């Protein structure tokens, strides 16, 4: 399985509008909701915020990966968003985050999906991968970069 | 060459566990240190440390935000930290581990 098996161009938003951490989590959750896989958007958003309260997922390096294991999603889902101006996210390095992955998986996570998400987390540590995501000009470019995650 | 065995584990087991593991592997390589990192995430245990790995290691690095079973590491030197500390300061963490050997 590859990331592209459960992500397509409709899961990518290049111009996030939010200015704060809570706003961007809501914006990404709303965006994820377009596919109709969420049964209670507000509850899912709260699950993500609760995870965030345990410790920030703004890991620095311009990346934030808010995520949750939640009863309110039917299938493992990922959306990607980018903000050119950056958004304060309580990041470990004190800098703004520009690359956002919201990841929601059902309580009984499917192993194949989890393996791909683990690879995504590992990929983001690499500077070249991050730079490509930062510099990509459109959603097609982003999908082509993400296709390499498997 | 110094040998470290490590375990990473975070609350949800989706992101930090794997980011910390990847950073430890990358950073150790740059610092000329041998490391094997076991991940305990939502997938379960991967790249599991064997008894042999543990026996031959100079020290055990636990980057765990949750309680893990430490029975295997009895009689070994243990350095404890968190996944976020590894992600924020990987070089410092490894340098501190080496100092404790």
Describe this structure in words.
The complex is a heterodimer of chains A (150) and B (101). Chain A is α/β, with parallel strands linked by helices and 150 residues long. Chain A has helices spanning 21-33, 41-54, 111-124, 127-135, 139-146; strands spanning 12-13, 58-60, 63-64, 67-69, 77-87, 97-105. In chain A, strands 1, 2, 3, 4, 5 and 6 form a six-stranded mixed sheet that branches. Chain B has 101 residues and is an alpha/beta fold. Chain B has one domain: Response regulator (Rossmann fold). Chain B is built from four helices and five strands. Chain B has a five-stranded mixed sheet with strand order 3-2-1-4-5. In chain B, strand 2 and strand 3 (44-46) form a beta hairpin. The two termini of chain B are 12 Å apart. Chain A binds chain B through residues 51, 54-57, 59-60, 65, 67-69, 92-93, 103, 105, 109, 111, 114-115, 117-119, 121-122, 124-126, and chain B through 11-12, 14-19, 21-23, 26, 39, 41-43, 46, 65, 84, 87-88.
Sum up the structure in keywords:
heterodimer; A: 150 residues; alpha/beta; Mannitol-specific EII, Chain A; 6-stranded mixed β-sheet; 6 strands; 20% strand; globular; B: 101 residues; Rossmann fold; 5-stranded mixed β-sheet; 5 strands; 28% strand
What's the structural blueprint in terms of helices and strands?
The complex is a heterodimer of chains A (150) and B (101).
Chain A: E1 12-13, H1 21-33, H2 41-54, E2 58-60, E3 63-64, E4 67-69, E5 77-87, E6 97-105, H3 111-124, H4 127-135, H5 139-146
Parallel strand pairs in A: 1-5, 3-6, 4-6
Antiparallel strand pairs in A: 2-3, 5-6
Helix pairs in contact in A: 1-2
Chain B: E1 3-9, H1 16-30, E2 34-41, E3 44-46, H2 51-56, E4 59-64, E5 78-81, H3 83-88, H4 90-100
Parallel strand pairs in B: 1-2, 1-4, 4-5
Antiparallel strand pairs in B: 2-3
Calculate the mean pLDDT score of chain A and round it. Answer: 93
| Biggest interface, CB < 8 A | A-B, 27 and 21 residues
- Biggest sheet character of chain A: 6 strands, mixed
The CATH top-level class label of chain B: Alpha Beta
The structural class of chain A is alpha/beta
Q: State the CATH topology of chain B.
A: Rossmann fold
């Amino acid at each position: 399985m590859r990331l592209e098996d459960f992500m397509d161009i409709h899961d990518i938003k290049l111009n996030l509008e939010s200015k704060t951490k809570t706003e961007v989590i809501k914006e990404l959750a709303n965006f994820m909701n377009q596919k109709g896989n969420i049964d209670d958007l507000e509850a899912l958003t709260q699950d993500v915020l609760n995870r965030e309260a345990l410790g920030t997922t703004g890991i620095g390096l311009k990346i934030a990966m808010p995520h949750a294991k939640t009863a309110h999603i039917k299938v493992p889902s990922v959306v990607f968003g980018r903000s050119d101006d950056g958004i304060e996210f309580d990041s470990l390095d004190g800098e703004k985050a520009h690359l956002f992955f919201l990841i929601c998986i059902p309580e009984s996570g499917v192993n194949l999906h989890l393996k791909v998400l683990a690879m995504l987390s590992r990929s983001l540590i690499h500077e070249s991968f991050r730079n490509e995501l930062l510099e990509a000009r459109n959603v097609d470019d982003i999908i082509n970069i993400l296709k390499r995650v498997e | 060459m110094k040998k470290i065995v490590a375990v990473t584990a975070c609350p949800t087991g989706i992101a930090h566990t794997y980011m910390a593991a990847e950073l430890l592997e990358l950073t150790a390589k740059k610092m000329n240190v041998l490391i094997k990192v076991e991940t305990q995430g939502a997938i379960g245990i991967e790249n599991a440390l064997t008894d042999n790995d543990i026996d031959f290691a100079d020290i055990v690095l636990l980057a765990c935000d949750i309680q893990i079973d430490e029975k295997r590491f009895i009689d070994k030197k243990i350095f404890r930290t968190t996944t976020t500390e590894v992600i924020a300061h990987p070089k410092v963490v490894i340098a501190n581990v080496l100092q404790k050997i």
